[in-house]
Structures are given as structure tokens and as C-alpha cells.
Amino acid sequence: MAQNITGNETEAGIEWIKSGLVTEYSSWATLASGVIQLLLLLLAERPTSRRFKPTPINVILVVMIITNAVTTVTYYLYEKMISDLVASYVCLGISNLAYAVMFISIFYYAWLRGYSVIEVVLPCALPWIRPLFAVFALVEVAGGLVPVFSWFMTPEQRAVYDVWSSIQFAAQTVIISVFDVFIVCCYLCYLWQVKRIGVQVDTASLKTISNFGVASGVLLIASQAACYAAGWLTWEEETDFYLLMWVLSLNLTTVYIYVQVWMKLQLVHEAKAVSAGKKDAIERAKKISNRASMSASMASHNRRETLKEESSTIRPAS
């Protein structure tokens, strides 16, 4: 339906893309979101510590936030400085490398977050995730490094590179999408087990991780679909649909990171509530123990007084 639209709105949308406004606005939105996400991440640690804890999850979240911003901003600079070949290719190389690091981090993060759920639902799959991650990382790094050298390629080499780039892009999309579908299925299976069977393995935190994990997986699949659609459409096929895919490919990863920070805040809140509940239980146990001790002490005292009274009433026979 979008391809049948030929009015001013479609023309304006095409000019919006050509002028780079989509990328420019997305880069500013990503930068602002990155600052907000880092502040929220620091805020999540405040209830338990005055300093940022460099746990694997926290470190990966920070890497995801920074590389997401670098990817979008440097790609915008690449479009902005397209007339300067050296500067534009440097920006494109940085953008590609940051993109590769970002998605390697996303894959590893999803693996860490979902490990406990996979261990409950399908433990036999765990040994296969590590080699899959290794292959994905190699594909991503290769996809990030090769474009840096494309500027120095001959026309024949560039033709080979174009084929390689298409294969790499398809392989990256397939691997991350298959993993996303797999882990979403694990999350849904765990939630079904909790609801129907009554699984009680750390239910509180794993339920939260599973709920957020389903939303995260759907966002990643949508992001990959948008990137794939935008990547395969040519400039001659620019339509409102292309505009939509381009906007989604630039911004869905930012939404994904927001969901992860939200999950972090929720898990910290739940951990704080559990800790407070344990403290209350300990205090109640102490009070009950103190009352029991006092009762025992009073009973012992009364017993001694009774024995004294009984002994004073007994007189030896004369």
C-alpha cells in the first residue's frame, strides 16, 4: 500500500532521508538516551552501594549504551562528511566496529541473563551456546573490520567484498535471530511452567527476567528485521515503508537498552524488598526469642520464690 502513495508526504519522507535528518535526529536521541540510561544505571546501584559495581551485567550494559551512541553518531558524521572520503570512511569504520561490539555485547548479555532460565528449561542446550557465540563474534568482527579496507579495494575486489558483505549481513541476522527466538521460547516455557506446574526455582527474579526477556527478544527480532529490510531496499525503492524501516533500524536498539535498564531497576527493587523482608523476619524472630527468654526467666524466678515459701513453712520436728 505504501508504494502506491505518490503525494507530497512520500516525497517529503524521501527528502528527509536524503538530507540525513533521520540519522541526525536519531543520533541526538541516542546520545540523550545514553546519558539517561547511564544515570538510571547508577541510580539502580544507589540503594545498595555508593559506588558503581563493575559486575559483568553492569559492564556489558555500559558497553551497550556507549557503543549504541557511537554507532549512530559516527554513522551520522559519515553521512555528513561524505564529500571528504578519508574522514567519512574513518567514521564509517568506527561505526561498523562499534556496531559489531554492540551486538556481540547484546548476545553475551542475553546469554548471561537467560542462563538460569535455560538451565531450568533446557540445560542440554547450554554447551551449544558458547560455540554459537564464538561464531557470531567472529562474523561480527569480520563485518566490522572489512569495510574499513574497502576504500583501498580495486573494482574487482570490491565486487567480491559486496558478495561477502551480503553473506556476512545475512549470517549475522540469522544467528542473532535464531538465538533470540530460542531464548524467547525458553522464557515463555519457564513462565508456563511457573503458572501451570508451579516451578519454585528462585521464582521471583526468574519470572521478572523472563517477562522482560520476552519483550527484549521481540524487540531484537524486530530490530534485525528492520535492518534487513532497510539493507536490501535500494534508494530507487524509497517509500514510506523504507522510511519506517530506516527509523526502526536506528532506534529499536535504544529501546531495547531502555528495557534492560528497566529490568535492572526492577530486579534491584525486588532484591531490596526481599532483603527488607528478611530483616523484618529476623527482627520478629529476635522479639519472639526475647519474649520467650523473659517468660522463661520469669517462670524460673517464680519457681524459686515458690520453693522458698514452701521451705519456710516446713519446720523440723523437735
Structure characterization notes:
Helix content is 85%, strand content 0%. The protein has 318 residues and is mainly alpha-helical. The radius of gyration is 30 Å and the shape is elongated. The model is unreliable at 1-7 (pLDDT under 50).
Per DSSP, the total helix count is 8
Order of helices and strands: HHHHHHHH
Helix content: over 70%
Which outline best applies? elongated
Report the mean per-residue pLDDT as an integer: 78
Largest β-sheet summary: none
Cα-atom Rg, whole angstroms?
30 Å
Backbone structural class? mainly alpha
Low-confidence stretches at least 5 residues in length (pLDDT < 50)?
1-7
Tell me the span between the first and last alpha carbons. Answer: 123 Å
Number of strands: 0
Strand content: under 5%
Q: Can I get a quick summary?
A:
The chain is about 85% helix and about 0% strand. It contains eight helices and no strands.
Keywords:
318 residues; mainly alpha; elongated
Layout of helices and strands, plus pairs?
Layout: H1 8-18, H2 21-45, H3 56-80, H4 85-121, H5 126-149, H6 155-197, H7 203-232, H8 240-313
